[in-house]
Amino acid sequence: MKKNILFLSSILLMFGACLNEKGPIPKKAVSLCDSIVHYKVASAGYVTVDSIIQLNCATPHCHNASSIYGDFTTYQGLKIEVDNNKLREYAVQYITDPMPASAPLTAAEKSKIDCWIKQGAQNN
Q1: What is the pTM (predicted TM-score) of this model?
Q2: pLDDT computed for residue 53 by the predictor
């Protein structure tokens, strides 16, 4: 009987000691969406959503002011495509035909556009 009590006491002591151990706090991965993604306001070295769109989409043969597929030369024209989910569908997710047709956006560019949309597609 004394052996059983001693054995159970040992197990409880070991179990209790394990519960109080604390390991290092895991670091949170930094995401692009953790910071505000700007549409047009830029600082040195910062690529804005507008610059990505102007270089890749709002070109003379694509989404310009006379395009039936949306005018990406202005925030208002681009916002229409954000609101109907076409910008995310074509430029970020590639559900149907990937855009731009000339060459796909980089992962960083897609991520920046996606975060900007998730943050409310502000005209900032």
Answers
A1: 0.70
A2: 95
